[in-house]
Design a protein that fits this description.
Number of helices: 3
Mean pLDDT: 88
Distance between the termini: 22 Å
CATH architecture: Sandwich
Strand content: 25-35%
Number of strands: 8
Shape: globular
Order of helices and strands: HHEEEEHEEEE
Largest sheet: 8 strands, antiparallel
Low-confidence stretches: 2-19
Strand order of the largest sheet: 1-2-3-4-8-7-6-5
Length: 177
């Protein structure tokens, strides 16, 4: 949990990559548990219940709620859910005007089982991911950030700095700003 909170704090401090043209599309923020056509699609900014149920059906195991506390900015609760094998982490929060909302803010993937919309996976190199997303990223030590603007949703890739192989990736959308 401390790693996720630290990363979310870092997201507020590190400027996102800015380009003259949008580098990401709405499809880039889709998360699917399967690449099969017609597989359910989930995005940060949506209610978490559908994804939580889909993960349980897909894996046969429910996500564990590993954190819950009063949100730091809004009335309502911030929650974190972790797969038993720690391959997926979801962070949720309430919405402005809806304290009962359990809205996806972060989908973090730490396994090669799942791919981004463009096909990036854990184990790929920074060079391979840049071939999919372009060179318009901000690199902050071991993390490459892609975004269309500082307050836009982001895709982050985390790397081993010795091999520059991807250790995980995240879809993030700030729900407050």
């Amino acid at each position: 949990m401390k790693k996720l909170l630290l990363l979310l704090l870092m997201l507020c401090l590190v400027p996102a990559a800015l380009a003259d043209e949008a580098v990401l599309t709405e499809e880039d923020f889709i998360f699917r548990l399967s690449l099969e056509e017609g597989a359910p699609a989930f995005r940060p900014g949506e209610e978490a219940d559908g994804l939580l149920k889909a993960i349980e059906q897909h894996t046969g195991t429910a996500m564990l709620q590993t954190f819950e506390d009063q949100d730091c900015m809004l009335p309502g609760m911030t929650r974190e859910y972790t797969a038993p094998d720690e391959s997926l982490v979801l962070a949720t929060r309430p919405l402005p005007g809806n304290a009962k909302a359990n809205t996806l803010e972060t989908i973090q993937v730490l396994t090669e089982e799942y791919a981004t919309f463009r096909g990036a996976r854990v184990g790929m190199t920074l060079e391979e991911i840049a071939a999919l997303y372009g060179e318009t990223y901000t690199l902050d030590y071991d993390t490459a950030f892609y975004a269309n603007g500082p307050l836009e949703p982001q895709i982050l890739f985390f790397f081993d700095v010795e091999t520059w192989k991807c250790l995980g990736w995240m879809l993030f959308r700030n729900m407050v700003i």
